[in-house]
Amino acid sequence: MGVNERKEKEKEVRRNDIIDASEKVIFSKGYDLATIEDIAREAEFSKRTIYVYFNSKEQLYFEIMVRGYRKLIQMMEAPVDEVSGVNALDQLKQFARTLYQFSKEYPDYFKAIMEYENGERDFVNGVPDQSKEECYLLGEKMFAYLTSALKNGIEQGVIRSDLDVVNSAIVLWSCTLGLFNTLIKKRNYIQHYHKRDSEELLLEGIDTLVRSIQSESRGKQYEK
């Protein structure tokens, strides 16, 4: 390995060490309470070193979301072969089930992505275009799973042909996030006062969303 290659490898290792430290701090303290000082202390680097690699805490948050999106996309791609040839309505259900599984296996990444998706600010200050674009592209890849399933469903005749694919995908994604947000944050309340299981309600909610877009003829035949 040449000198330049060795230096680049060392930079990449240090960069990943800083992101690792950022995850620990932000996951434990929350984004708003976490500081660059906390991250530098966890990484055992100076603040100056942190700023050599990253412009801001916002950029580090984007890097964390990139990691989370990559893991989520890996999980989404795993069952593609199993559902790609089946009914598009089942593909949409599988999408939601995989998202739920991701929330169980990687709760911290899921929370980071959810807080960003449901947040009022876009964390754009101090974030280089490259970091933003990578995160956005991964998010759009997730969105493409929805639009693809909707297009397939219209072609199969199981989803209403009058729907605008992009509009419907945005609404489905928003509604799905809303379900997750409510059923996770209010889990104890729902279980205590309504005697309902959040996981069962989530799957039932996804069924309701799917039924709202299926074609009338399919609605009479489709079984869960």
Explain this structure to me?
The structure is a single chain. It is globular, with a radius of gyration of 21 Å. It starts with a helix and ends with a helix. 79% of the residues lie in helices and 0% in strands. By secondary structure, it is an all-alpha fold. It contains twelve helices and no strands. It folds into two domains: 54 residues, Orthogonal Bundle (Arc Repressor Mutant, subunit A); 166 residues, Tetracycline Repressor, domain 2, CATH 1.10.357.10. Keywords: DNA-binding. This is TetR/AcrR family transcriptional regulator. InterPro entries: Homeodomain-like_sf, HTH-type_TetR-like_transc_reg, HTH_TetR, Tet_transcr_reg_TetR-rel_C_sf.
How do you describe this structure in short?
This protein has 224 residues and is an all-alpha fold. Helices cover 79% and strands 0% of the residues.
Write the layout of secondary structure elements.
Blueprint: H1 3-29, H2 36-43, H3 47-53, H4 57-77, H5 80-83, H6 88-105, H7 107-118, H8 129-156, H9 165-185, H10 187-194, H11 198-213, H12 216-221
Helix pairs in contact: 1-2, 1-4, 4-6, 4-7, 4-8, 6-7, 6-8, 6-11, 8-9, 9-11
